[in-house]
Write a structure and sequence with these properties.
By secondary structure, the chain is α/β, with parallel strands linked by helices. Helices cover 24% and strands 23% of the residues. The mean pLDDT is 94.
Length: 254
């Protein structure tokens, strides 16, 4: 078996969630690499949308950020941030990839502050376009690189991006589109989904070498566990070759 690192595993797991002929809102880092890998592996007609208005870029060369000129290279559309967000509001974007410093059992995310808002321990970047993505894409996928009790928390220090808010029906009461919301969480310990009725986070698969108990011990809230928990497949030799030779040959991220 070819050796791989944790970042490469997370990229491959995220890439496998991206379907062909769908539109996915992606941000800088792992989602961007995952989209490029998916297009080269199993989803050549995946349309990648960027916050600054690039739609359908080829991703032949890895962008360094969501406003990089390469997010417009061979794109279907080169527009602006308002059009990008409006496209999501109109219901045309299936998947949105998000990250956060904290996530709770309903998939709500904090990217604003750790500690008290006015006297914070850490001031974070804020929403950017994350609130829009979490509010309007049909399904959101959170990438949480470090799975521990500081990040998978009972209560957020600040609510930046809505997940299922306080549970079933709460998004709709808040005026968000019905049938939208969190779909998956990718972490360094496993893959999580959400219970269809309670909307609470549920462990679906562990990563290779990780036990169910490890996931539960590193989660502050009570994580639901699927009746059958699978194991994520490690990166294949072909996935690793494409990642290392074509997607990120300069090893900027991996």
């Amino acid at each position: 078996m070819v050796e791989y690192n944790e970042t490469e595993l997370l990229i491959c797991i995220a890439a496998r969630l991206m379907e062909n002929k769908m539109i996915a809102f992606v941000g800088t880092g792992i989602p961007m690499l995952a989209a490029a890998l998916a297009k080269k592996m199993h989803a050549p007609e995946l349309v990648v949308a960027f916050e600054f208005g690039g739609f359908g870029a080829s991703l032949e060369k890895l962008p360094l950020g969501v406003g990089d000129s390469r997010t417009f290279h061979k794109a279907f559309l080169a527009s602006g941030i308002c059009d990008a967000m409006e496209t999501a509001q109109r219901g045309f974007i299936e998947y949105g990839f998000l990250g956060g410093a904290q996530i709770d059992m309903y998939g709500n995310l904090n990217t604003t502050v750790i500690g008290d808002y006015y006297r914070p321990k850490v001031r974070l970047p804020g929403s950017g376009g994350a609130n829009d993505v979490g509010s309007h894409c049909w399904k959101t996928i959170a990438i949480m690189r470090q799975h521990d009790k500081k990040r998978f928390v009972k209560k957020l220090d600040f609510l930046t991006t809505p997940g299922y808010l306080t549970g079933p029906g709460a998004r709709e009461k808040a005026g968000l589109p019905p049938d939208t919301g969190p779909y998956r969480v990718v972490s360094n310990l496993g893959l999580m989904g959400y219970h269809p009725e309670s909307k609470r986070m549920m462990l679906l698969k562990t990563n290779p070498g990780v036990s169910i108990e490890q996931v539960l011990e590193n989660t502050e809230f009570e994580m639901l566990v699927a009746s059958q928990v699978g194991v994520n497949e490690p990166p294949t030799p072909e996935e690793l070759r494409i990642l290392r030779e074509e997607v990120d040959p300069d090893r900027l991220y991996i």
